[in-house]
Predict the 3D structure of the following.
Amino acid sequence: MSANSWGDMVTWPRSRSGLPSIVIDTLYAALGRSHRDDPVASGTGGPAGNARLTAWTGLLLLVLSVAELVTLINVGGLISCHIVIGTLLVPPALLKTASTGWRIARYYRGNLAYHQAGPPPLLLRILGPGVVASTLGLLVSGLLLVLLGQDRSRTVLLTALGQRVDWLTLHQGLFIVWAVLTGLHVLGRTVPALQLTLLRERTARTVDGTTSRAAALTGAAVVAAVAAFLVLSASGSWRNGDHHRPLRSPAGDGTPARP
C-alpha cells in the first residue's frame, strides 16, 4: 500500500462533515490526508529532517511500548522483562522529547523554515505536553521503584480519599494517565509517521542528515542497552522477591493474618 492510499481509506467533504474545523484538521492529519510543508535544509535536513527523526523515534517507542504492555499480562512472572523494556524506553523517549522540543523552540523563536512548515493541528498541540509529562513521569517513577526496592516502594506518601498512596500506587496512577493520553497521540500520529518512514514512496525527495539521524537513533539504542543492563542488575529485590506476599498479623510476629 502506498503512502497516499492511507489517506483514501476515509473520505468526506470538509465543508459538509458538520464537525468543528479543529477536529477535521486533526482527522485529516491523522489519516495522512494533509501534511505540513516541511522545508528541506542542507546539512541536518531542517524541518523535514526533524520530522523524519521524530517519526522513526516514535515508531521505535510504539514497538517497545506494545512489548511493555504485553508484560502486564503477568507482571510478576515477567518482571525482569518489564524492567528491561521499561528502561529501554527511556533514551528514545528523551530523544523524541528533544526532537519535538527543538522544533517547538525553533518555531517560537521565529525561524523562517519552521514557520513555513507551521505547527501541528491544535488538538495535537494541546495533547502534546500531557503526553510528554505522563511518559517521563511514568518512566522516572518506574526507575525510582527499582532503586527503592520492593519494600521501600510501599512507603506511604500520603492518604487521599481514604486511600493510602505509595510509590507503587503513584506509578500505577501515572500509567493510567499515560495510557489514555498516549493512546490518543498514537491514533493521531501513527499513519503520518509511517508515511515518513516505512511507507515513504521511492520518488520522495531526498533529505540531508540521514547519517546524523541514524547516529542519533543508534546512540539512543546503545545507551538504552547499557542502562537496561545496569538497572536490571540493581533490581534484585523485585526479581528475587515474593510478589504475592501474605498479609502479616497486626501483632508483627510474622504469622500470616487470618481473613
Q: What stands out?
A: The chain has one domain: 3-136+187-239.
